[in-house]
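Me: I hope this is not a bother. Any chance you could explain this protein sequence and its structure tokens? It all follows right here:
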Amino acid sequence: SPTSETFVGADFGLSAVGVNSGLRADGVTHGSVGDFGWVLGGSQSNWGDLSLGGGEEQPFTGYESRGRFASLEHALDSSRSLRFVARRHTDFDVPRTDKLYPGFGQTEASYEDYRYSLQDRSGYLLAYTDDSAGGFSDTFQMRLSLRDYTEERDKQKRGSDIAVFQRDEVHSLGLGADWKLKVAERHQLTLGFDHYSDRVDSRRVDTDTVLGTTTIKDGSFAPGAEYMSSEVFIQDELEGVGPWDLTLGARYSRYDFAFEDFGSGDLTEGDFSAFVASAEAAREIGDGRRLIAVLSQGFRAPNLDDLAQDGDWAGGTEIHNPDLDPEDSLTAELSIEWSRVEWDASLALFSTQIDGYIGRLLTDEGTPAAGDEEYLRVNSGELTLTGIEYSGRRYLGLSPFSLGFQAAYVKGRQEDDNEPSLDGVSGRRIPPLFGRTSLHYEAEDPDSGLEWAELSFVFAADQDELHPEDISDPRIDPDGTDGWATLNFDLGGRLNEAFDWNLGLHNLLDERYRVHASGLD
């Protein structure tokens, strides 16, 4: 709201990471003058190649990045404001490690060069907010946005004389609004809409490194690719319906796409739509316990990556398929939360069933060791994900110490009546049991310089339940991924009113390990 006060502040940060000789610097200034306020910031970072557990260096893992951010807000009066936000983040020469480093089943890397030479993301947002009472709603906000993403790739297959340059540009225009209305003291209604229109420009230039000649080709996305999404939603929050607090939601979505077929130039277009709903009910069940139940539908329309792009993945090439159907899902979750003086905890059980799951079908084996298999994107039947999550903390009497423990486990099963080889198999890239336990110290006197410290043990179990595509994926050991654990020590505090500090010593046991399906030690 308008004020005659003037305030200007600034924050600066510097981070150094030894495992990759990385350095990051960032700064931000913020303040207000009268009815105008701002936040302006930026960051610069340089990350070298990773040093693995045991000391070996992992090539093709370093890159540079920088970011810029600005938020300017003007208070039109005590209840209305106009905000403009601009952001940009750019990465340079990000290597595609899984293409440049030999994977499982490969004697040498499939590419001599594969770099995202440019990844440039920018976005602009203009938002009008009205909190004045007396209208249709208590709060109204309208948003107009523009987003751009540019990606450039330089790549050359091993043994090939052809150097490939690819450039994709995505331009997205968005419009959205929502209204919040307090129907009663414990009853709030939210409704709104979002609309986005995307256009993709894609091109490719092949250069014969011997002859020096160039050839212009279609890019990874089909020419003239466009995608439009429109959604209308409503959410009803009711507190104190008997012993229950309820949140009910519904959304209607429609997606339209169009592109020109590779080579022929024939127009392909289509649309998808769905109505989905969700419900959450929560209540106190006595003695510091709270029960929460959720039932929600989901809907994912195939995007342009699925419909109109021939793209690379670790095991070869994925071919687009404009005849894909959407994925529909149903999720049920039941959780209970405990809150005590000595401890707190939460336990959640969930199950998600996805119908029309979009996967891959092998159409050309190529030379698997070279990573040149060809797959077609297809709807692959039904995928069921069932899991459990736990989080808890125990406070050790009146001392400044506490013990924490978190763990999660999920199991995936795919059923596909049309493809026997994919019927009854484990889901793709399902994580193993993983978690974290910690001993945490919180200083009773925060002015002591040391405010907190934590010794943590992070772990993951073996994962040998693999999908057939996992077995052929060079990022994953066909015999399964070994379990691992790291021991870490972190601490931090405040030197004075101007300076905070923190220090972390990670993987103290110097173990070499791989997160399942990451493709990187």
